[in-house]
Amino acid sequence: MEKKSEGTLAIILLALIQGFLASNAVEVQPSINPAAVGDTVTLSLSPPAALKSGSWALGESLILTWLGDQQAVIPSHSGRAVVNILTGALTLNSVTMADSGVYVVQSSDPQLRANASITVLDPISNVTLQANQTDFMEFNSSAVIACSISSGSSPSFLWLNGSSEVTASDRVQLTDGNTTLTIVNVTRYDQGPFRCHVFNAVSNGTSDPVNFTISYGPDNMALTVNGQNTTSFSVGSNLTMLCSAQSSPPAQLQWAFRGEVVNTTGPLLGLYSVTEDQSGPYSCLAFNNHTNMNSNITSHITIAKSPFSGTEQQAVHGPLLPLLLLVGFLFSLPDGGGSFSP
């Protein structure tokens, strides 16, 4: 009687287990998902189950079947698919994009059915850029760069200017699925380097940089004298004037005094032992032969005598001379000049 009860209990437990497995308690877990073309993917059962027989299919297409330690693989997967007869796990070697889909495992001993999806992606390769041109005039041209790849499935495109991400704005357009970057009315700040970064779930790649040459200026000129902001100097001083301008290519610089061009070019103008008649407006003229633009800056320099120089010094010190002589005489007397008596 006791043995009959144990047998009944075993049958009930087996039925419960089969029902448990049949109710999708067993899941299929891919070792990689998504996978790259060429990877090896294993589809394992969780929890593991000892299946005496069963089959694997991709959608409705059979891949293989097994019974005990015997398995049969259909020709399309010959040499690439194998099942672990102890655990029921399916291993796929050298997967291709055609291996993407829903994989279904079925068994009648014990009863179960489970499935899982995997996606196989082609890795990104050979990211390249093509620009409409690389030399521009500021505010007069638009730059267009196209990004392309030799291979890669489901790619996403990201643009970089240096280390900063390029985002759309009034002047910046990202079109054709972000594969094309257009910069309207380029400025001096659009020189780059521009790169295209392409990625998917299994790989990524970045293009070589593209740099632009943008001609601009001259503008934002500055003029200093002896490295100072002052414009007043004493007669006899040495003056070094420094002129600068923002310009690409560098501007040609010419100097003028009182509206007349002087025979000095370049950023420096030196004046030595200046005199009063060298007071007046000094101008720096800048010209860019690429943009055909020019600009200028003027500083009014005043050169005057020092208030303590020449005859003015004599006028100050003249009346003091007799007093100094008298004091020196008194201190030279034998008693030290401490007193004076008639």
Any key phrases for this structure?
342 residues; mainly beta; Immunoglobulin-like; 3 helices; disordered N terminus; disordered C terminus
Description of the molecule:
The structure is a single chain. With 342 residues, this protein is mainly β. The chain has three domains: 2-121, Immunoglobulin-like, CATH 2.60.40; 128-211, Immunoglobulin-like (Sandwich), CATH 2.60.40.10; 217-304, Sandwich (Immunoglobulin-like), CATH 2.60.40.10. It is 13% helix and 45% strand. The protein has helices at 2-25, 311-317, 320-331; strands at 27-30, 35-36, 41-46, 53-58, 61-67, 70-73, 81-83, 90-92, 101-108, 111-118, 120-121, 128-131, 135-137, 143-148, 156-161, 164-165, 172-175, 180-183, 194-199, 204-206, 213-225, 232-234, 239-248, 252-257, 260-265, 268-271, 280-288, 293-304. Strands 6-5-4-9-10 form a five-stranded antiparallel β-sheet. It has a five-stranded mixed β-sheet with strand order 22-28-27-24-25, with no helix packed on it. It has a four-stranded antiparallel β-sheet with strand order 1-3-8-7, with no helix packed on it. It starts with a helix and ends in an 11-residue tail after the last helix. Residues 1-23 and 310-342 have low confidence and may be disordered.
First CA to last CA: what distance?
162 Å
User: Average pLDDT value?
Assistant: 86
CATH fold annotation of the largest domain:
Immunoglobulin-like
* Strand-pairing-aware structural class: mainly beta
Q: Which strand order do you get reading across the main beta sheet?
A: 6-5-4-9-10
Question: So, the CATH homologous superfamily of the largest domain?
Answer: Immunoglobulins
Helix content range: 10-25%
Gyration radius, in Å? 45 Å
Shape: rod-shaped
Detail the poorly predicted runs. 1-23, 310-342
Main β sheet profile: 5 strands, antiparallel
Separate helix tally? 3
**How many strand units?**
28
Strand content: over 45%
CATH architecture field of the largest domain: Sandwich
Q: Specify the CATH class of the largest domain.
A: Mainly Beta
